[in-house]
Amino acid sequence: MSPTWRQVLYRAYALGHSAKVGDHAPELFARERWQVCIARPSRDLTLRLARRMECIACGEPIAPNGTGDHIVARSLWAAPEGAENYLPLCQPHNSSKGRKNLLAWWHGKGLPPAGLVPDPLLQFARVTYAYVARNTLADMDAPADVVEALEALELALLPSVEHVTVLRQAAIDQAAAARKGGA
């Protein structure tokens, strides 16, 4: 059975959060309530990404009049245009990403996993979760390329397979609890 969007986004958020706080303890994944955290907007996170003046993919400076890119492509998903959906990418990487999902594009380009954590991954999870929840897609299967990209990130960023297993089970458990609770 494929993971749902809700499970994938809980996992992405948990992975970004664990990188941010420097705590990869398996207990962190089980005790946090990601369904509450992921739904809360973060002004600080949005501002950090908006003020970042270099491309997250290559480190090149972004021109003051550069447009960056959308975390969730507006042309594909009619995602919000505001600052919370901004991703600091240079023009070549913006063009390369196009309408692709951020995780699938990043993985497909072979970019280093560490470049996505913590802020871009946290914001990706929040913006995408807001969209899928609003459009009742949270319990639909996530696309295979997104799942593959997230699995590669987990294996690259977490210290052991045990951590990956605990994170995945926590996402399954929390998604089930959210469905049961109507969240």
State the domain count: 1
| Distance linking N and C termini | 22 Å
Helix proportion range = 55-70%
* Tally of helical runs: 10
Content-based structural category = mainly alpha
How would a crystallographer describe the biggest sheet?
2 strands, antiparallel
Roughly what fraction of the amino acids lie in strands?
under 5%
Number of strands: 2
Radius of gyration: 15 Å
Integer average pLDDT: 87
Which strands sit side by side, in order, in the main sheet?
A: 1-2
Poorly predicted ranges (pLDDT <50, ≥5 residues)? none
Q: Choose one word for the global shape.
A: globular
- The secondary-structure element order is HHHHEHEHHHHH
Outline:
The longest helix is centred in the last third of the chain and has 21 residues. The two termini are 22 Å apart.
SSE layout and pairing:
Layout: H1 5-21, H2 26-31, H3 34-37, H4 43-51, E1 69-70, H5 74-77, E2 86-87, H6 91-97, H7 102-109, H8 119-134, H9 144-157, H10 161-181
Antiparallel strand pairs: 1-2
Helix pairs in contact: 1-8, 1-9, 1-10, 4-8, 7-9
Q: What would your notes on this structure say?
A:
The protein has 183 residues and is an all-alpha fold. The protein has one domain (5-178). It is 58% helix and 2% strand. It has ten helices and two strands. It has helices at 5-21, 26-31, 34-37, 43-51, 74-77, 91-97, 102-109, 119-134, 144-157, 161-181, and strands spanning 69-70, 86-87. Strands 1-2 form a two-stranded antiparallel sheet. Helix 4 (43-51) packs across helix 8. It starts with a helix and ends with a helix. The mean pLDDT is 87.
